[in-house]
Amino acid sequence: MSNQEIDEILEIIWMKKEKGKNDLCAIEDDIKRECRKNLIAEMQTKDLLQIISGKVELTSSGEKEAASLIRRHRLAERLLLDVLETKNDQLEASACEFEHILSEEVTAAICTLLGHPKECPHGLAIPPGQCCEKSNAILESVVSTLDKVAIGETAVVAYILTRDHPRLHKLMSFGITPGVEIKMHQKFPSYVIQVEETQIALEKEVVRSIYVRRNK
After folding, report:
1. pLDDT tens digits along 2-22
2. Which residues are paired to 214 by β-bridges?
3. CATH number of the domain at 64-133, out of 2.60.40.180, 1.10.10.10, 3.40.190.10, 3.50.50.60?
4. What pLDDT sits at residue 215?
5. Strands 191-195 and 181-186: what pairing?
6. Does CATH place domain 3-58 in 1.10.10?
7. Fold equal for 3-58 and 143-214
């Protein structure tokens, strides 16, 4: 069994678990579809997974490897989309290539560069790394939440991280969408931003849901 096959199986199990579908039959079908053979038994001998009451569970070592793999893939997607402005139809294939070659050090640097994003472009959680827990960033972020932008500074909206659809629609009605330039006008007593010729007052919670690409 190759390292790439191991990675593919770990990804399948992780993503199935995210959807609450970790039953053995469903995962075996997906593995056969991707790898053209059932490799569950070999994964067990490598202490990467175990079968408990018909459910596939990752072992501690399997969980660690899967989390690292998923983290690299989803950070690569954010890098490709937010910084390199790669087209959506090229994201998946390019991210798959990145996930197999990024070292832990480079992954941490990318995460810091992006401002430690919590979700990939598809809204799926990015497993946090040690760099996310440290206050001393090793690189200055080029993508950060809007509240970190200084008064008078301009930035371009990279993405909006919210599951609150009314809030998202409200921001869009103000013209706050990916690619739009925003200028920080005021931070106290409330946040006031400028979009083109319009000044908009926003709550701190809303401002922290807007991720921007800094003009630096």
Report:
1. 777 888 888 888 888 888 877
2. 155
3. 1.10.10.10
4. 66
5. antiparallel
6. yes
7. no
DSSP 166-197: HHHHHHHHTT--TT-EEEEEE-SSSEEEEETT
pLDDT higher for 146 or 25?
Answer: 146
Q: Where does 143-214 sit in CATH, by number?
A: 2.30.30.90
Q: Which pLDDT tens digit goes with each residue over 24-69?
A: 877 877 777 766 666 788 888 888 888 888 888 889 988 899 999 9
Residue 108 has which token pair?
A: 């941490």
Copy the structure tokens of residue 80.
């490709």
Which residues make Cβ contacts (< 8 Å) with residue 145, sequence separation at least 6?
Answer: 115, 207, 208, 209, 210, 211, 212
Write down the mean pLDDT value for the chain.
83
Average pLDDT estimate for 93-107: 83
Domain regions of the chain by residue span = 3-58, 64-133, 143-214
- Residue 47 falls in which region: left (phi positive, over 0), alpha (psi -120 to 50) or beta: left
SS3 content of the chain, % helix, strand, coil (to 5): 45, 20, 35
Supply angle C-alpha 151, 157, 158, rounded to 5.
Answer: 130
pLDDT at 37 (0 to 100): 67
**Quick check: helix, strand or coil at residue 98?**
helix
Count CB neighbours of 49 within 10 A: 22
Q: Which of 108, 17, 109 is nearest to 62 (CA)?
A: 17
